[in-house]
């Protein structure tokens, strides 16, 4: 490839600090999606972690004073929900780190592996979040519908608010997973573009 | 070099096909019924939608693997295969975790919700479900290797 002009001297290369317009737009899109994913995972963690409902039942009377018993539904009672909270907190930490890297990490030199690292870490986080959401969803299904064959009773008819909050946390977690998947797809497309452009330069 | 890599990926996919198919079959054929005093416990995999999800997910994974072995690898097809590989791996992951959540409740019970463990009454069913889940986990590990291999082959087209 010829890179000298007519007089035989190499043209000056002026480093430009302005990025091309399409790259700026792509960065804004990924940033926005990352913010949405962060919002999804953080809200899933918080809503499930603060999920608690207690009911007082009257079990008998002594004379005129009723004896009450309180039963409580907490998220710690089920290991699947504990795992859900842990997985979503790890996921929100990952999202926060990736956001910080997008905003402030342009100074660090990753030797060309930046996009690959982000893609692989995103994939691992999607896997973790989907296991947490899957486990919580299966336990919620049993809690909502019961299981007559195993004689497991429904929980949701007695603890309506607990179930509603759990449903909200699950929806937020699934939305976070979807946004992360979109970010991952965009990163893979960018990676593919980068490798095909590099291979044409090498072979040209 | 290219032919060796192609043979390696076909062997990996055959292994993944074997494990996912066996996981689906082992879970689907688990059945046991016992009569304890006045309670009849009839345990089958389709008593719980989660186990049905596990069987269906592993079935989809094995059918997809069988299909992909016969696809050519030029043009845009490797990209689509990578995307579908990611989707199938995530499907397998979440089916295993959902099944483990239900199996934990079945083994240890949940005193706060009043759910009694059922594994004491139907131990053979529980053992077969455990075997199916272990096969599913092995299938997932192999599928992760398949996924990494296909990503690597898409990103380095000259080497493949």
TrEMBL record, chain A:
Its main location: membrane. The keyword Cell membrane applies. It is found in: Cell membrane. GO terms for cellular component: plasma membrane. InterPro entries: CASP/CASPL, CASP_dom, CASPL. It comes from the Eukaryota. Keywords: Cell membrane, Membrane, Transmembrane, Transmembrane helix. It is a multi-pass membrane protein. The chain crosses the membrane at residues 25-50, 80-101, 113-139, 167-189. Residues 27-179 form the Casparian strip membrane protein domain. The keyword Membrane applies. Homodimer and heterodimers. Belongs to the Casparian strip membrane proteins (CASP) family. This is CASP-like protein. It comes from Thalictrum thalictroides (Rue-anemone).
From TrEMBL, chain B:
The chain crosses the membrane at residues 52-72, 79-105, 133-155. Residues 6-141 form the Casparian strip membrane protein domain. The keyword Lipid biosynthesis does not apply. It is found in: Cell membrane. Keywords: Cell membrane, Membrane, Signal, Transmembrane, Transmembrane helix. It holds the Pfam family CASP_dom. Residues 1-23 form the signal peptide. It comes from the Eukaryota. GO terms for cellular component: plasma membrane. It is a multi-pass membrane protein. Its main location: membrane. Homodimer and heterodimers. Belongs to the Casparian strip membrane proteins (CASP) family. PANTHER family: CASP-LIKE PROTEIN 1U1. This is CASP-like protein.
